[in-house]
Amino acid sequence: MKDEKIKSQFDQIISALSLIMDQFGNHNLLHSRRVAVIATALSEIVMPEKRDIIFYASLLHDVGAVIFGEHPALFPTMQEQKRVPRIFEHPTVGSKIISRISAMEETQAFIQDHHEWYDGSGYPNGKKGEDIFLGAQLIHIADTIDQKIKVYGDYSCTEIYNYLRLHKGREFNPDLWDVIMDLKNKDAGAFCTRISDNMSIQRIFSEIIQSVNPPWVVSTTKIGDYMRVILHTFADVIDAKHKYTKNHSQRIAFLSEKIARVLELPDAEIEKIRNAAYLHDIGKVYIPYEVLGKPGHLSDQEVDGMRKHAIITMEILDTIEAFRDLSPIAGFHQERYDGKGYPDGLMGDDIPLGARILCVADSVDAMLSDRAYRNGIGVSNTIIQLERCSGTQFDPVVAEVAIGLLSDKEFVDDMRKAE
Description:
Strand order of the largest sheet: 1-2
Number of helices: 24
Largest sheet: 2 strands, antiparallel
Number of strands: 2
């Protein structure tokens, strides 16, 4: 029973992460999910014993790119991908991220090799032939199919199979052509049409994820190692969606934890506040780039859209059992002590203490950081603003603690370096 609960939480987290990685404003590419569905179907034919590993590797195969705000799916050809340093490096970066999770070694290897070509012209290491892991080749084929779906549109089966036929022995082992033909004939030839449809791909994905087991569940029931990595990865993906927020969530987590410790909160509560800080802006991945990065004042409509991120944050976290208790802390961090904040206009102690801490920490980092519309205002002016807004925007007790911390230059230096 314990393993079943952990698996359920893991699946919820990975599912949410895959969606967030593929979210660009109000449009979701569904790239990770489509690749996972296709690669899993291929593995069932050629290496069924690795099916579960290939599924999870496929879901996370591009994590090394999206944490830097790039997405390989937006660069259709290998030549384009090679010209962008962060795309070229993303298999290695993604492999390193996954290496932090115990019992995920094969997943790591498949991610590392998924852009290698059978003829040696791929990247990042120019591997060739049988030196490329078979699981990685299946992910590459699935990745290519999804790219071609985007190029040719919903009715693309003929063009896709023609492309793969012409590239067998070049992109992938020619012996896999028979596997691709088996896939083509799957579901009486309807598989290609099904994976081209977004509604259909979501249904197939839901069916698969219920039937697979994370590799680490087999060897351990400890969740601490993967939870830390997942939280940091979420934070990196969220912050990477906009160039002005790099490491923002890491700094908020650092400052929030320090404030909570000065307030002598219980360790369990401090951990919740720190974890909520990593996820507090998760709803912003659904806000268009042109709004997030607008250098001038936002229109009333844009302000309303921006404010919805707090509600979206809570909606996302409420769908993940392991993160549900973080929802009010993360979702209410834009509430003001005087009741003039959003989304619900909560006031004073009606705002969760963790959210009041995040409110101060988020504002401090915003004031210290450069943004599209202004430069950072410096520590002295930040302290002045905390004093001025104490009791109105900010909980006066929390603001006082933050002022004390910011008065220590060494602390400020440590916060700025938080990653």
